[in-house]
Design goal:
Blueprint: H1 15-37, H2 44-62, H3 64-68, H4 73-93, H5 96-103, H6 106-117, H7 119-124, H8 127-140, H9 144-152, H10 154-173, H11 188-197, H12 199-211, H13 218-227, H14 231-287
Helix pairs in contact: 1-2, 1-5, 2-4, 4-10, 4-14, 8-10, 9-10, 11-14, 12-14
């Protein structure tokens, strides 16, 4: 892919990506409409969350970040943050699995439920595996050989790197935020802990990139020379984005998980109080002479 030059449009027309995004939107809206015809309730907040997640994906891969990511490292980093830490969790909050199960029926529904409860399905949502996959994808893809390979091969970027970033983020957030029919969700405390621990590789990677005294990626050095800008400043800006913004974004998702934890404790307390209230008259009757 030819690098962007000043004066050209920063918007990208990717028909393959546009087609996939349009298909995802059409399927989600079909599911919502099907539930409405059956008079089954579906939260508009979930639909809004899906629209926001898909909108962020479209902006990341069709907007300025996609075009500028071939020239500026900070744009590359901003694109990753948008996809992995914003778009993916908002898609998870839209509960696409639950929508699919409710909108379908018969053998399709049973097949989905079996897949969720299978050994493979349970392994794919194991929080240890998803944490390692997310952190490993983020860190290893920013080693110099891998980054140079991705930047130099459009097919690798489009059909390997992009799907891997999105899938690893979806799997990481799936058992941790929202409730989308995950067959084995970790306890609320573990969800908050997992989200908090993700700050470690993210901030370490950001710090390494920010504090590095030399440029790490020759491709960006070459584009910097062509456009007459400082590649070290560009790299430091990218590192600062990773270092600072990830803590802010992760804190938001940790807060959401903590709110879910608090609500689950509230519901447990209310259920216990109802059981005690129901048992009290029987205890008084048995105690009466």
């Amino acid at each position: 892919m030819r690098p962007w030059v000043p004066g050209e449009s920063v918007w990208t027309l990717d028909l393959f990506l546009l087609g996939n995004l349009a298909l995802a939107v059409a399927l989600y809206l079909w599911g919502v409409a099907r539930l409405r015809r059956r008079e089954v309730g579906w939260s508009p907040w979930r639909t809004a969350s899906f629209a926001l997640g898909l909108g962020l994906l479209a902006f990341a891969y069709l907007g300025p970040f996609e075009t500028l990511s071939h020239v500026f490292f900070w744009a590359h980093m901003a694109q990753h943050l948008t996809v992995m830490m914003l778009a993916a969790p908002f898609i998870v909050l839209s509960a696409p699995v639950a929508l699919t199960v409710l909108a379908t029926g018969g053998s399709t529904r049973r097949a989905i439920v079996r897949a969720l409860r299978s050994r493979v399905g349970l392994f794919l949502v194991n929080p240890v595996f998803t944490w390692l996959l997310f952190a490993g994808t983020l860190v290893l893809s920013h080693t110099t050989p891998v980054m140079e390979w991705v930047l130099g091969d459009h097919d690798v970027m489009g059909y390997v790197a992009r799907p891997l970033y999105l899938v690893s983020a979806l799997l990481f957030y799936y058992p941790l935020v929202g409730n989308d029919m995950c067959a084995r969700r970790p306890k609320p405390a573990y969800r908050v802990l997992s989200l908090g621990l993700m700050m470690i590789p993210e901030t370490m990677l950001g710090a390494v990139i920010f504090l590095s005294p030399v440029t790490l990626y020759p491709t960006y050095v070459a584009t910097a020379a062509a456009l007459a800008y400082d590649p070290v400043f560009d790299q430091h800006l990218a590192g600062a984005l990773m270092w600072a913004l990830t803590m802010v974004i992760d804190s938001f998702w940790m807060m959401l998980a903590a709110v879910e934890w608090w609500r689950s404790e509230e519901r447990r307390t209310e259920q216990q109080e109802r059981r005690e209230a129901a048992a009290a008259p029987a205890a008084v009757t048995e105690a009466a002479p």
